[in-house]
UniProtKB/TrEMBL annotation:
InterPro entries: CHP03716_TM_YkoY, Integral_membrane_TerC
Record's subcellular location: Membrane
NCBIfam families from the UniProt entry: R_switched_YkoY (TIGR03716)
Pfam family, one: TerC
Protein name, as recorded: DUF475 domain-containing protein
CC terms in the record's Gene Ontology section: membrane
Membership in a protein family: Belongs to the TerC family.
Topology relative to the membrane: Multi-pass membrane protein
Alphabetically ordered keywords of this record: Membrane, Transmembrane, Transmembrane helix
Keyword Transmembrane helix: yes
Keyword Transmembrane helix: yes
Membrane-spanning intervals of the chain: 6-30, 42-61, 67-83, 103-126, 132-154, 203-220
Amino acid sequence: MSGEALLVLLSVAALEALLSGDNALVLAVMVKPLPPDLRRKALFYGVLGAYVLRGLALLFAVYVIQLWWVQVLGGLYLLYLMLQHLRDHPEAKPLPEASAQSFWRVVLMVNLVDLAFAVDSILAVVAFSKDLLLVFLGVALGILFIRLAAGYVVAFMERYPGLEKVAYVLVGWAGVKLLLEGEGTLAHLLHRPEWALHLPKEVFWGITLAILVGGSLLSLKRHA
């Protein structure tokens, strides 16, 4: 592999990890209700599904970037997760038993939400190189990093259960981001860019940091 190819590979992997950084938190929240052994399986099948979906997405990038409704549905689902948690205040404990149906439902939702997050990153990573195999390898490395990060996030939430509510608020905020991205995609498809509601990355990550820091301090103070 040439130096240029290696640089493209690492750049795509880093870009995938950065663009989908919030995805790791979302995945952690989605698999956490499962028992520990099923969590690992869910993340494993999520990796396999992500590789297949990303591979297809790269091949059909021109069509994937028009899937505004996937982003909207993904955003609505994440908001639903947040509101359901804040309403019900479920205990931060794994379910003693999980049926095959509930397990595969989690796996399915993990892959659908992953696809929703992928819509905005596909165009960016394809711009790095016309070599789809090289781009896919970079994306694969980024996906692997996200899945590993999700496992650590689950462990962290188990160690500090008071932070689980903060995690769900962040998931809801990620849902808002997906909704706005879906609306922006639709606006461009309708050739009405002035209708697009833009959420600058600086604003998104600034609010994310504020929720994380502020929520963590409040949670730790409450349980001190």
